[in-house]
Amino acid sequence: MISKVIKPAKSFSRVCRYLLEKREEARLIVAEGVREYDYRKMAEDFDLQARENPNLSSPVQHIILAFPPGEDLQDEKLAEIAREYLRELDIIQTQYVVVSHREKEHKHLHIVLNRVGNDGRTIKDNFLGLRGKKKAQELTQRHGLAPAEKKDLKKTHIRQMNAQDRTRYEIYQAIQEGLIKAQNVTELEGMLKAIQIDMIYKYKGQTKEVQGVSFKKGQFRYKGSEIDRRFSYRNLQKILDQKREIKLHPGKQLETGLKHKEKYQQQDLIALLLKPEERYENTPEELLRKKRERKSKGLGL
Q1: DSSP letters along 105-155, please?
Q2: CA atoms within 13 A on the CB side of 236
Q3: pLDDT by residue (tens digit) across 81-106?
Q4: Is 267's pLDDT higher than 50?
Q5: Coil, helix or strand for 74?
Q6: Region 111-119 average pLDDT
Q7: Contact by Cβ (8 Å): 253, 114
Q8: What angle do CA 250, 254, 259 make, to 5 degrees?
Q9: How many whole angstroms separate alpha carbon 292 and alpha carbon 280?
């Protein structure tokens, strides 16, 4: 099971309609504090509570819990997992709904909650995306679910995606293939340009120092980390630098963040560097880094 936290939004009406209107595969699993028989009434209830905190412009929090193909859980189990997920993230005393969607064998839960709590206060969302990923890993292990797999385009139903997600996966595939062939970022940029994908750089102030990269195809543009966390500018440079190093020194051992050093041939390097983070045992590196930064400043998480 994997967790994806969507950027907070303004309209409960829009998201409730998306989840429930004219969707044969949609099943309302849990409705806490809102009317469940009509998505319009549901949105009205969310909006009524949101007005208790008019300073919060984006009260809609949308989270997706996705299960791998073949993981077929009953509604009662799905409700238990969703409630545990929210409770352990300290998201309590607020309105929320849990809706199950299924696309062929792929089941996922949509959790929509009100960021304005029952007491009118804002529900804290500090590092919610990172904490959600970690919690999904823990719940996967605790409930004996199938572990999340790395992206596999062969298992992705691209035709069923909307245009924005489909474009993101097309860019993901192109970068994967480009990293195998390219020797540096300039070569990667040229390969992507040939298939109508532009690399757009973000620079530090008025300098020529590159701080980040985005990828654009057609009308859609994504930060590198939105395509995949391994596709930030710094990580792309690291992959290509280590690929070049292993080509110059074929037998050299590389430290790649794994628990032990191992020897890899050049053709295995991309797969190694794009390997998913360790499951369950370790806190995600991003969260650890944030903790270290805050600790050094004398702040708590």
Answers
A1: TEEEEEEEEESB-TTSPBPP-TTHHHHHHHHHHHHHHHTTPPPPPPP-GGG
A2: 30
A3: 999 999 999 998 999 999 998 765 67
A4: no
A5: coil
A6: 96
A7: no
A8: 140
A9: 20
Strand, coil or helix: what is 32? strand
What distance in Å separates the CA atoms of residue 32 and residue 16, rounded to the nearest whole number? 14
The predicted model gives 212-221 an average pLDDT of: 94
Q: Closest by alpha carbon to 66, among 143, 140, 7?
A: 140
Which residue from 11, 62, 63, 60 is spatially nearest to 40, judged by alpha carbons? 11
Half-sphere exposure of 9 (CA within 13 A, CB side): 14
Residue 292 pLDDT class (50, 70, 90 cuts): low
Distance between CA atoms of 285 and 229, rounded to whole angstroms? 11
Beta bridge partners of 113: 61, 96
Asked whether the beta carbons of 67 and 143 are under 8 A apart, the reply is no
Read out DSSP for 222-248? Answer: EEHHHH-GGGSHHHHHHHHHHHHHHHH
Token pair in block for residue 141:
């292990």
Count Cβ neighbours within 10 Å for each residue of 170-193 and write b for 16 or more, e otherwise. Answer: bbbebbbebbeebeebeebbebbe
- Which two three-digit tokens encode residue 134? 């970690």
End-to-end CA distance of the chain: 25
Rounded to two decimals, what is the model's pTM?
0.54
Q: What is the DSSP letter of 159?
A: G
